[in-house]
Design goal:
Helix content is 25%, strand content 30%. It is α+β, with helices and mostly antiparallel strands. The chain has a six-stranded antiparallel beta sheet. Strands 1-2 form a two-stranded antiparallel ribbon. Strands 3-12 form a two-stranded parallel sheet. Helix 1 crosses helix 3 and helix 2 crosses helix 3. The protein is globular. The termini are far apart.
Length: 261
């Protein structure tokens, strides 16, 4: 075990034993270098390990903050899109449809340069001014769990202007798009892991060392076959695991036929 891994092990044990409590901070670098008789690089390496594990994150003017440990959620996303009479479409999510969720801060809608990912999926040049609807949500009573950005194409805004309103009405912006002649919308989901950007670190209260699980749902018009909207969710990777029930094809039925010599 390398020296920085040894230091990380000791600090991890102190966090787990409650010596360093959630919301508090680790000792300063100077104190840690003295205690462990190690250089600053060793301490930095140890802290980076703890950041990747979701135990701490650096906060400007505060230091290395100890994070609350949250139970990892198992997501069985499936492929089924449902509909609620009050809320409209309900997509496979990180929870069961009836669980209460909180919104952190105020949802924001504004024209901003399209991110590289949004531009790729919308089929526009990166940086194109695009209407983005942003919200930060979590299961009720928990810290921020996911950052959700919905990017709406110029065609979507032109044909259904209410998608840019603070309140888009019953069924939300998707109902407004389908009422404008684009229904039934077809959706495709893309899932990948990546490192977070600065906005995501701040909004989700995570370290830059913590990967995020990204799901991008792309909605395509039935009328024009153009992409109307892209919804990108970023969830810290230490808070979720994906679960898929595997099924047997006919060729894998049991009992199996004996192999003939």
């Amino acid at each position: 075990m390398s020296r920085y891994e040894e230091v990380a092990r000791v600090l991890r044990e102190r966090i787990e034993n409650g010596e360093y409590q959630a919301g508090g901070t680790l000792p300063r670098y100077e104190e840690l270098t003295q205690e462990f008789s190690a250089g600053r690089g060793v301490i930095a390496g140890a802290i980076a390990v703890l950041e990747r594990e979701g135990l701490v994150r650096p906060v400007k003017r505060r230091g290395i903050v100890v994070l609350e440990r949250l139970e990892r959620r198992r997501i069985q996303r499936g492929h089924l899109i449902m509909r609620d009479p009050q809320r409209g479409y309900v997509f496979p999510a990180a929870t069961h449809p009836g669980e209460p969720w909180d919104v952190h801060g105020r949802p924001v809608r504004e024209y901003v340069p399209a991110s590289d990912r949004a531009a790729e999926l919308l089929g526009v040049p990166p940086g194109t001014p695009t209407l983005r609807r942003r919200r930060i949500t979590s299961p009720a009573g928990e810290p921020p769990f996911q950052l959700v950005d919905t990017w709406l194409s110029a065609e979507a805004v032109r044909d259904a202007p209410r998608v840019g309103d603070a309140s888009t009405g019953p069924g939300g912006y998707l109902d407004r798009l389908e009422e404008a002649g684009h229904g039934p919308i077809h959706w495709t989901e893309y899932t990948r892991t990546r490192m977070p950007n600065r906005d995501e670190c701040a909004a989700l209260e995570i370290s830059p060392e913590m990967p995020v699980l990204e799901t991008a749902i792309v909605g395509t018009s039935a009328q024009t076959s153009n992409v109307l909207e892209v919804t990108v969710r970023a969830i810290p990777a230490d808070r979720v695991e994906l679960v898929t029930e595997l099924r047997r094809a006919d060729s894998a039925s049991w009992p199996t036929e004996p192999v003939q010599p």
